[in-house]
Amino acid sequence: MMTINEDTLFATIIKGSLALLATMMLIGFVFFSQKTGLGVLAGGTVAIINFFWIRSVLQRILGLQPSRPALYSQMRFIARLTLMGVALYFLITSGWFSLAGLLAGLSVIVVNIIVISLYSAVRAGG
Predict the structure, then answer these.
(1) Region 11-18: what's the mean pLDDT?
(2) C-alpha angle 22-116-109 in degrees, rounded to nearest 5
(3) Which residues contact 120 (CB under 8 A, 6 or more apart)?
(4) Is the separation of the CB atoms in 44 and 17 below 8 Å?
(5) Can you count the helices (H) and strands (E) in the chain?
(6) What distance in Å separates the CA atoms of residue 3 and residue 36, rounded to the nearest whole number?
(7) How confident is the model at residue 19, as a pLDDT?
(8) Deepest of 8, 28, 60, 124, by most Cβ within 10 A of its Cβ?
């Protein structure tokens, strides 16, 4: 039986998201098209990179205590949002990826967090 606590939560989210991404990508390639499979892969990769980036910024804010945490977090947020927006713009306009696949891939982290939350609630008897 899987034990999820604060120490293993991040690793559980990443492992589960990678497994879900691989499954969705395979389904995209087999049942839909190459563009859909590539879209799922690209969207999932962007989502996972974004999740890592958010975590690293939060760790720096909480762990290192920069001199101006509000300004630091705002600047990091704007930089992350800008770079992710530019990356998504190029992915959408390239024509190599299905928009539906890209949106499905972008949802892997959210779906995985919902599944983990439901699992933890059921396991705790709630």
Answers:
(1) 93
(2) 45
(3) 4
(4) yes
(5) 5, 0
(6) 34
(7) 96
(8) 28
**Is the distance from CB of 105 to CB of 87 less than 8 angstroms?**
no
Q: 85-108 burial by CB neighbour count: b if 16+ within 10 A, else e?
A: eeeeeebeeeeebbeebbebbbbb
Ramachandran sector of residue 65 (left: φ over 0; alpha: ψ -120 to 50; beta: rest) = left
> Which residues are CB-neighbours of 50 under 8 A, at least 6 positions away?
80, 84, 109
- Indicate the pTM of the whole model: 0.85
CA distance 44 to 89: 15
Minimal CA–CA distance to 111: which of 35, 51, 68? 51
What distance in Å separates the CA atoms of residue 112 and residue 100, rounded to the nearest whole number?
18
% of the chain with per-residue pLDDT over 70: 95
Rg of the chain taking only CA atoms, in angstroms: 17
